[in-house]
Amino acid sequence: MSKVIAFLLKFGLVNKDGTKNYDQIKESLNLQKTTKEIQEYIDFLLLACENPQSISSNMIYNTGQKVLQRINAMEKLLTLLSSLDENTEIPFFESAPKWRNAPPQWTSELEYKFFVEVAKCGFGELNLIFSQEPFIKVFENGPPAFMLNDHAVAKRVEALHQFKNSGSKVVVEKKKKSEKHKRSESALCPKPVTVAGLAELEDGEIEYPIMITPSSFILNIGRVVYDRPGWHTSRYIYPAGYKSMKLFASVKNPEERVNWISEICGTGKKTPVFKVYMEDDPKVCFTAESPSAPWVNVLKAVSEAKKEKSKSNSISGPDAFLLTAPVVTYLIQNLPNAHKCMQYNFKEIKGAPAKPPRIAKHEDETEINDQNTETTSTEQQTNENNETITDVSKSPKRRSRRNDDDTELEPNEVIGIAASIPRRVHKQVRRSSSSESEIDSDSDRSDRNDEADEDDDRDAIISDMDDSDDYE
């Protein structure tokens, strides 16, 4: 019955209408078996594939795993394609996460046509597909090797299917709005990078926006301000220019979920400003000197719109800003100058790659830099060592001293790196000649921020928050 296995590897087990294609297998392979016998054999084969302990041969095991993957991938591909029409097929692929390492000439339209051919010709025919138009004109010297790998193509199908079920509808709707609001952040979101796990960041290059969950993104990781105590605590670093986005209830219509932007802004002062506003109406904006306060005001506004005065308005600001997501923590800890944040206790991130990824230049970087001109100017004037804050997107290959050293340290020794840095670079030491009252004031404010953060983390995010935003 090797012919049956070969058929399953190529076309899977499900027809376009979702039914099992036992009759098609019998007819295509000209098998002298009844449909019932074919079904019983395939059922036995799939049972064996799903229970590796019952398989003694490595060859059969490996083949069985391929069979399971191809059947699953083909079923999802057919389901995906059947759900699209001429009005949604190209917009869907435009809004879907970019196929990692795909070349620039790999357009959304080309990818759609490619998967139509995969559904038609089956797996194992990738070379044949790329030898035909329009693909042969695009890749004169042949496509990238991974595009000729059935396993990689099957994984891409899985990612597209997951995106379709989780968030594509919202992104497509925002694409329509972006025609009217060309500078809207939603114009960035059609091209997110799916970050399924920290290990996938190793030796890679990622582009904004960075998908944290299907409904939350990082739009800019920002840059570290290390010489002002208010810009970090023992638990969090607050990068200047940091910007995230997540779906949450609208204050205008609580039944509708809209994109909310969270920003950490610099004004040239000792502490950052935390700003939260609706993407489609920036006038609905809340600001404060802590991450929790603006989101508490968002919750109050939503509760008032829902007429739920008795509802709790407690929320963790760092969670809402996505600062507690492991991927975000990892990226911030690997920013230039992060090791100079003297109060911050570096966290051990399980599964983190040894080398941080390169982050492509932010598409809206000019606007963000303009917003923080006052911060940058003040930093350059007050930094005695003329060390300016560096945007990670401008220095993709630069790594901090902590990154070079921490691979040989135990987790509890990571903070020791900061202690080894000359104290002359820390602004608080340079301020030692200032009045004791000013230093005490800054220290008290930092302590209050730490306490507030700890209280925030103990608060559960209210039921209005999307359950899909759990990071652990």
TrEMBL record:
Quote the biased-composition stretches of kind Acidic residues, using this chain's numbering.
450-472
User: One Pfam family of this protein, by short name?
Assistant: FYRN
Coarsely, its chief localization is nucleus
| Start and end residues of each stretch annotated as Disordered | 353-472
Gene Ontology terms: cellular component: nucleus
Gene Ontology biological process terms in this record: regulation of cell cycle
Q: Where in the cell is it found?
A: Nucleus
What the entry lists under InterPro entries is as follows: FYrich_C, FYrich_N, TBRG1
Q: Tell me the keywords, alphabetical order.
A: Nucleus
Q: Low complexity bias located where?
A: 371-388
Cross-referenced PANTHER family: TRANSFORMING GROWTH FACTOR BETA REGULATED GENE 1 (PTHR22715), TRANSFORMING GROWTH FACTOR BETA REGULATOR 1 (PTHR22715:SF0)
- Official protein name in the record: F/Y-rich N-terminus family protein
Q: Which organism is it from?
A: Trichomonas vaginalis (strain ATCC PRA-98 / G3)
What broad taxonomic lineage does this protein's source fall under? Eukaryota, Metamonada, Parabasalia, Trichomonadida, Trichomonadidae
